[in-house]
Design a protein that fits this description.
This protein has about 1000 residues and is of the alpha+beta class. The chain has 33 helices and 40 strands. Helix 1 crosses helix 30, helix 23 crosses helix 24 and helix 29 runs antiparallel to helix 30.
Length: about 1000
């Protein structure tokens, strides 16, 4: 056949039109086939359209869904739009338009781009979360939660974004800033609607064990939920007020040297002494300005105020001061903590700063102790004495730095110190022992009284002690000792009265049992997870279906009156007053009570967008059903989703909320499963090499975060490439950063499809790196994918007229007659095997690599035929087998060219128009088996030779061949073989000496 040019634009347009006309991707309404539900996170449509970064999500899912379809599965692969919420509304405001206008425009762009790159969605199931026939059922589920006691309204301090003029859930606050616009968050007291997700905290953690998700995502959810086991301990103020403290470490109770209350704790005002009142009030105002994230950041310098009052430790009756500090929150535990600075990092830093005693009560597990001995504190020759006793030390200026391990060595060293320390001098051992050594006595640092006595004596004899308020403050001055002063391990209890010596493994349990027996506390479980704040003071969202009646209170909107329609208004922008724009629309607000019929008012807050995205995967099974949110039987058939693909950034928002709603629906009898997504995959980011300019003097700007490079010390402003020439080259910095509109570095699929073709884009994104890893976008890489597609095109167009549809009856004989035919057939079956497994494993890069190897082998075979190296003129059956399998293997990855090449082949009975309707290739294990393999011969674990041997060689044969190797023999010269270890098919290791 004469060479035909690869007109990729024409070819791709042709097949997209044919697929659409044939309604190729419509899912069958049948439940008599094995199902596969593949789903991408549905996007919120924005004006920027899709980037090639989005494609990294959609293309792999499409590959798997096409592959499963060819395997005979009934495949559901839908798409829809997360059209409600802040992103869509903010975009419309930015465009000075209205979301009811911008959203349809953006959806049209997204659909066009998805079709452009050949994604096979069943568009008959398209959903839009801002459509009344969708959010009617979001409201219905809200009412389901409300009736089950899982939705409630409460007056509470909320995360307020002044830019978005709305409240944000805790999960939507990132490092103290709005997840959407990056504005610093403020606190505002408002009536808010919540979903009681905390009621499902245990199940949300426990059921992570039954789903196939990345461990990193599971860990993020476990940490966010933050389940911990411990005890509630009852302290009392000196005035007799009960202060309940939650602790995960009841075994450290005797080390509690102060108590910290949240600034908002109800007892703060009562317990604060008059002389501390002004300082406490000022600090409370300071704490109120901080976000929850800022208050809990471990790296922040600790702040706090002593309120003048004291509490009594219930285990030893010790009098401990009460402080307030912003790192203690009312929302976690009881809003009060017992501070054990010797075994909690935050408490340690706090106690050091404010001079509060630090008493160790838990022994180190590693047995490590340290001492920093001033040379002028011990008699001459102390170094020789230590060497003689095998004590490990180093000299650092005028000090000996000593490291000790274990009781025996520690005791030996303390005895040496006692014998050699000078009069009016001292030394200390810290870590696994807490001892101060003087010439006349050895004192254990094991209590308040001991600390007072030791510190008093030190100040009498050593002016260097100076103004140290505590022993730990003094010891902390010595850098060498710092890592031995604090630990949070579960070692044996020390300095703890009758509990001293209790093993760490049982300490928590024993102390908790004592607390319960004495009535001073009880076992408790706590969570970091807070209830999900769902209400927004914005227009573009699903109205909350509640009516407020002066007589009846909160009244749910009757189901028959759903949906509560979002009013069609022109002025929808946020008010900034704490009320939704809906509050200013009388015809929406004013209504009658469904119970008593009297005048009432509608709830004017709307639901956040995450409500709509918490169940959309269920709507796809019956998107046009108007009598229920979804068909129960179809949901039972299709769900859970078999493959869910999207970004890791939604780990503690969408993914957690969707799991919660699914469990509620399960408990209400609507679904038989408890988890919505059986398997989750997160794609790596797409990075672009982006120019930035440094800020000029007087300019302000936010530093850009860059992935994959070191952080810069100065702020940078991203530029469009065409802007670079406007600036001094010395001011330009190029960095690999995430591709995004704000970084001005977006590459669109439109541009790549126009230049290289959609199939080249698909191949490149699959091949460039493992799916989970970030990629650095490269047009040269796109060129490589385009060249590969071109090689496939040239090879098959050249051979299409020689294709033998009857190859199955001839191919085995050709393999017997010719070695090159046998080699190609082996490679074909090996490739089918590998590509099949790689798609199952999401290893698309190695799947493409296998196809490239097969193409190389096919070219070599074609060359051997044309040069006359083969014994017969034309082994068409062997090449035909390879061609058919290559096209079908390529079909999920590059479907346009696959269908075009398939059409070129001669017809035969049963041949279908589209490769998607053909069966996935199968392989013969015997044919795929290699005849020869390479093994390694080692001597004492070091590689000495590599040998090609028959693939079916047994262990004895491998042993003999390895021992016969000249290189192995040379290394064995003068040695005797003691043992030969054989790993069949891989290596032989000869142990000799």
């Amino acid at each position: 056949m004469a060479e035909r040019k690869y007109e990729f634009r024409e070819i791709e347009r042709k097949w997209q039109e044919r697929w659409q006309k044939a309604d190729l991707f419509r899912t069958e309404d049948t439940t008599d086939k094995p199902k596969f539900y593949g789903l991408d996170f549905f996007p919120y449509p924005s004006g920027a359209g899709l980037s090639v970064g989005h494609c990294r999500n959609y293309i792999p899912t499409d590959v798997v869904c096409r592959y499963k379809r060819m395997q005979g599965f009934n495949v559901l692969h839908p798409m829809g739009w997360d059209a409600f919420g802040l992103p869509a509304e903010n975009e419309a405001i930015k465009q000075r338009s209205h979301p009811k206008k911008t959203v349809p425009q953006y959806i049209a762009t997204y659909k066009r781009q998805m079709n452009l790159i050949g994604i096979g969605y069943d568009w008959s199931r398209e959903i839009n979360s801002s459509s009344p026939d969708y959010y009617k059922w979001t409201q219905w589920i809200f009412l389901l939660l409300y009736k089950r006691g899982l939705a409630y309204r409460s007056f509470a301090p909320a995360n307020w974004c002044p830019s978005c003029s709305t409240v944000l859930a805790n999960e939507e606050v990132k490092d103290g800033r709005c997840w959407r616009c990056d504005t610093p968050i403020e606190k505002k007291d408002l009536p808010q609607w919540f979903f009681r997700i905390t009621a499902y905290a245990d199940r949300l953690i426990d059921d992570l064990d039954i789903i196939d998700w990345p461990e990193s995502i599971k860990t993020m959810q476990r940490n966010w939920i933050g389940r911990s086991e411990g005890a509630e301990v009852i302290f009392h103020s000196e005035q007799g007020d009960e202060i309940v403290v939650y602790t995960t470490r009841p075994d450290t109770l005797r080390g509690a040297t102060f108590m910290v209350l949240a600034p908002e704790h109800p007892l703060v005002d009562k317990l604060t002494t008059p002389e501390k009142r002004a300082e406490v009030e000022e600090y409370k105002r300071y704490a109120q300005r901080q976000t929850a994230i800022e208050r809990q950041t471990a790296e922040r310098e600790k702040t706090g105020v002593f309120i003048g009052a004291y509490a009594v430790n219930p285990v030893n009756e010790a009098r401990i001061p009460i402080w307030i500090a912003d790192y203690v929150m009312m929302g976690y535990g009881t809003g009060a903590i017992m501070a054990v600075p010797a075994h909690d990092e935050r408490d340690f830093a706090f106690a050091l700063k404010f001079g509060i005693p630090i008493i160790p009560v838990i022994d180190r597990i590693d047995g490590l102790a340290k001492s920093s001995v001033c040379k002028d504190c011990v008699r001459d020759g102390f170094d020789a004495v230590m060497e003689k006793s095998h004590i490990s030390f180093e000299e650092h200026g005028e000090k000996y730095h000593v490291v000790l391990m274990g009781d025996e060595e520690i005791n030996t060293f303390i005895n040496l110190l006692k014998e050699h320390v000078k009069e009016d001098r001292w030394a200390a051992v810290v870590g696994a022992r807490w001892t101060f050594v003087f010439a006349d006595e050895v004192l254990a640092f094991d209590s308040y009284d001991a600390e007072k006595h030791i510190l008093s004596r030190l100040k009498e004899i050593d002016p260097r002690v100076g103004d140290a308020r505590t022993l730990m403050e003094l010891l902390f001055r010595e850098q060498f000792l710092r890592d031995a002063l604090f630990h949070a391990e579960y070692g044996d209890m020390i300095n703890s009265g009758e509990f001293s010596g209790t093993p760490g493994a049982s300490a928590k349990k024993k102390v908790t049992e004592w607390l319960e027996e004495t009535g001073k506390g009880k076992y408790a479980v706590n969570y970091k997870l807070r209830d999900w704040l769902i209400s927004r003071q914005r227009y573009w969202g699903a109205p909350i279906p509640i009516i407020h009646c002066p007589d009846c209170g909160e009244v749910p909107v009757p189901e028959e009156d759903l949906p509560v329609l979002l009013p069609d208004v022109e002025n929808y922008q946020p008010t900034g007053t704490g009320e939704s724009p809906l509050a200013g629309i009388p015809e929406f607000v004013n209504t009658s009570c469904p119970k008593c019929g009297k005048p009432a008012k509608r709830e004017t807050d709307t639901m956040g967008g995450f409500a709509c995205s918490s169940w959309y995967f269920l709507r796809y099974v019956s998107p046009h059903l108007d009598s229920a949110p979804f068909d129960k039987d179809l949901a039972a058939y299709w769900l859970p989703v078999d493959l869910y693909v999207g970004g890791a950034e939604h780990a503690v928002m969408h993914l957690l909320y969707a799991r919660f709603w699914t469990k509620v629906l399960h408990d209400a009898g609507w679904v038989p499963f408890v988890e919505p997504f059986a398997k989750l995959m997160n794609q790596g980011m797409v990075l672009a090499y982006t120019p930035h300019r440094t800020l000029e003097a007087g300019e302000t700007g936010e530093a850009e975060e860059a992935e994959g490079i070191e952080e810069e010390d100065h702020d940078l402003i991203p530029l469009f490439p065409e802007e670079v020439e406007k600036y001094d080259p010395s001011k330009i910095v190029w960095k690999w950063v995430k591709m995004s509109k704000s970084k001005r570095n977006v590459v669109t699929p439109d541009a790549m499809a126009e230049k290289f073709g959609a199939d080249s884009l698909r191949i490149y994104e699959l091949f460039v790196a493992p799916f989970e890893e970030a990629i650095q976008w490269s047009e040269e890489g796109m060129n490589g994918a385009f060249r590969f597609i071109g090689r496939v095109w040239r090879l098959i167009t050249e051979w299409a007229d020689r294709f033998d549809p009857d190859w199955r009856s001839k191919v085995a004989q050709e393999a017997l007659e010719d070695q090159s035919a046998k080699a190609l057939r082996r490679k074909t079956h090996q490739t089918v095997k590998k590509v099949t497994q790689d798609i199952e494993d999401f290893a698309f890069n190695t799947a493409v690599a296998a196809l490239m190897e097969l193409v190389n082998e096919m070219y070599s075979f074609a060359q051997s035929i044309s040069s006359g190296d083969s014994q017969t003129a034309n082994y068409a059956a062997t090449m035909s087998e390879a061609i058919e399998n290559l096209i079908l293997l390529l079909s999920p990855m590059a479907p346009h060219i696959a269908d075009e090449l398939w059409e070129m082949l001669p017809s035969w009975p049963g041949k279908r128009e589209f490769t998607l309707l053909e069966s996935w290739p199968t392989f013969d294990e015997e044919v795929a088996k290699a005849e020869e393999i390479e093994i390694v011969a080692q001597v004492n674990g070091k590689v000495r030779d590599r040998m090609v041997i028959p693939a079916d060689a047994d262990e004895n044969t491998m042993r003999e061949l390895a021992l016969a190797s000249e290189r192995v023999q040379a290394d064995l010269a003068g040695k005797s073989v003691k043992k030969v270890i054989v790993v069949k098919g891989k290596l032989v290791n000869i142990v000799a000496g």
